[in-house]
Amino acid sequence: MNANFYLDNSDLQYHFEHAGLADVLRMREDDFTLKESFPDAPASLEEANQNCRAKLDLVGRLSGEEFAPRGTQVDRDNVHLANGKVEYPYGTQENLKILRDNHLDGVTLPRRYGGLNLPTTIYSMMTEMISRADASLQNLIGLQSIAETLYRFGSDEQRDRMLPRFAAGEVDGAMALTEPEAGSDLQSVTTKAEQDPATGKWFITGKKRFITNGRAKALLVLARSEEGTRDGRGLSMFLVESCPQLKISGIEDKLGIHGSPTCELTFDHVPAELVGNRRMGLIRYVMSLMNGARLAIASQAVGIGEAAYRAAREYAANRRQFGKSIDQIGAVNALLVKMRTAVLAGRTLLYETSRIVDLRDAHEDRIRRGIGTDEDNAMVRKYGQLADVLTPMAKAFNTEMCNRVAYEGIQVHGGKGYMRDHLAERYYRDARITNIYEGTTQLQVVAAIAGVKKRTLNGRLDELAAMPYAGRAAELAAKLADARAKVEEAIQKVESVHDDTRFFDQMAFSVVRIATISFLGYLLLAETIETPERMTLAEEFLAEYLPELEMYHTYVMNGRCPDPKVLEM
Predict the structure, then answer these.
(1) Quick one: three-class SS letters along 515-555?
(2) Which residue range is the domain that position 182 belongs to?
(3) Helices vs. strands in the chain: H and E counts, helices first
(4) What residues in the chain have per-residue pLDDT under 70?
(5) What is the pLDDT of residues 449-489, one digit of tens each?
(6) Is 185 contained in some domain?
(7) Nearest residue to 176 (alpha-carbon basis) of 266, 243, 303, 253
(8) Which residue, 257, 279, 301, sits at the end of a domain?
(9) CATH code assigned at 508
């Protein structure tokens, strides 16, 4: 296969060229003064953009020429557990070596730790391309967010000791949160962290389950550090390195994502280091870690969706029935259009969210390094609030999109899509976990609804609504203004029934969904200002999704919850 997953994707290139990263790059590069200490650092914004483009081109080439051709064999070889050790498929081992040899570890880490110092937006683009090639490989490289969490919250000693090893590819990471009896309800974690009163050292005992890449050399572990507590205020975050006391007691036999091990871990008095402050493990550090994970899975979902759409379109163009290729059959063509619209819209939401995260992180890093101003503090609050609502929105929208596109990809293939000799069935299996792990869609709704109720997106929506639309764009803007009013009406309806928690819980999905559709509609319409060719996408998205918004709005305004008596029938 001779392909470059960056150069063959004009939409991804569009989002890079319009990413709006000038301020982010300037802040990350200290106004381009880092070249004095680091020869590889860019001396100008132009050089910084060229550097980003070169890395995207590299990952695009590796994804197309190396990772994708191995994807099917990796899926069939699967991971194995032998004598307590996890063995990757041969193809995965080769892929990881290629990533190390090309210095693609520590993508977002600062240069002083050996990192590439690239924005999260660029990392999201890399993640998307790798996921298009082999979604399970993304699960391994996507856990670089472990290093990012240590950078944000670890001690200077932990940063200096661990981050260069992450950047060099000497250690990989995992987050050990979930337990057999504490899945999404992390407040119920019982894994125990005890401190030796004589030495002050910490030790962890307990079990963790469903741990992605649990064989990693460095783990961030959520454990109960406060004796007698039962809620999230008794939990702290710990850094654990692989050792004999930490055992892999099993790996899961999964539907998909076969190149990535999902492990059960047993901690038997495992040495550990406290990360940050006690009692803040769930309240602050896990929330930050999960936001990074949500964005990574949103990127993974776009990559799988892109792959599923392309496989379907190629098959439809070559499969002939009734004297013509089936992509010329109206029903099939309409299905392909819906698939493409969904993927393109999801990518727009992904990179708007990534940009917001980049702005928050850049201002926050200035504060961390002691050069922040009052303006930086204000920007961290502004972009932090936006990121807190957009990351779960992006994860929910894109993973549901990914599942739908993969499902329809099999439909386009017909019976052949059900067979293992076509890629469609692998994409379908890999897609299914995306709206489950790192928080189900239902939990993303829980994460997003508070920001929706606070009207956190209103400032950004006002900016988008005030753009100079004309002609057809102005007509669509009027439709979006009406849609936005319906979102507000639905929010007010939920607020008016404040004493009915069941009503609130039942309607939260509908409210978050229509808020997402409205926001995304404005993003797509705004793209047409500079790029009129994007009007086709905006029109198609609104034609399909505004009726869905109307449906959910009606559902909320009717005020009727599903009747649980049906369950007794």
Answers:
(1) HHHHHHHHHHHHHHHHCHHHHHHHHHHHHHHHHHHHHHHHH
(2) 173-279
(3) 18, 11
(4) 1
(5) 999 999 999 999 999 999 999 999 999 999 999 999 999 99
(6) yes
(7) 266
(8) 279
(9) 1.20.120
